[in-house]
Amino acid sequence: SIANLTASIIGNVFGFKAVKALRLEDMRLPVAYLKTFQGPATGIVVERERMDKFGRPFLGATVKPKLGLSGKNYGRVVYEGLRGGLDFLKDDENINSQPFMRWKERFLYSMEAVNRSIASTGEVKG
């Protein structure tokens, strides 16, 4: 998908420590590939309303380490981050589904963590 492609390019290539400076000046994609991306489902206004958070930026983070955690431990990291004040956590852009941590398992433990953090903080988390 375009979302995965851009995340890989921007998230990984631009993140190389050995690269001192880099600028993406042009990116051309086939029309058929572009048609796979319909754009974001919602905008910031809808997300602010959904999360009932106004007048400040959202505070989020990427779960690290991206490799080596079980689904259960991944969920624990999600819970601790949300309980600690984050509004949301996200997967690293290239984690996908690994043999030691399948996507569905990671999702289920993460949603359990989101629901527990909502119950304990009284805030909407995502």
TrEMBL record:
Keyword entries, A-Z: Calvin cycle, Carbon dioxide fixation, Chloroplast, Lyase, Magnesium, Metal-binding, Monooxygenase, Oxidoreductase, Photorespiration, Photosynthesis, Plastid
Under the subunit heading, UniProt states:
Heterohexadecamer of 8 large chains and 8 small chains.
Q: Which organism is it from?
A: Melanothamnus harveyi (Filamentous red alga)
Q: What is this protein called?
A: Ribulose bisphosphate carboxylase large chain
Q: Where in the cell is it found?
A: Plastid, Chloroplast
> Which Gene Ontology cellular component annotation is one that this UniProt entry carries?
chloroplast
Q: Which residues form the Ribulose bisphosphate carboxylase large subunit C-terminal domain?
A: 43-126
Q: Which Pfam families match?
A: RuBisCO_large, RuBisCO_large_N
SUPFAM superfamilies listed in its UniProt record: RuBisCo, C-terminal domain (SSF51649), RuBisCO, large subunit, small (N-terminal) domain (SSF54966)
The top of its lineage is: Eukaryota, Rhodophyta, Florideophyceae, Rhodymeniophycidae, Ceramiales
Primary location: plastid
What cofactors does the UniProt entry give for this protein?
A: Mg(2+)
Identify the domain of life: Eukaryota
What is written in the cofactor note of this entry? Binds 1 Mg(2+) ion per subunit.
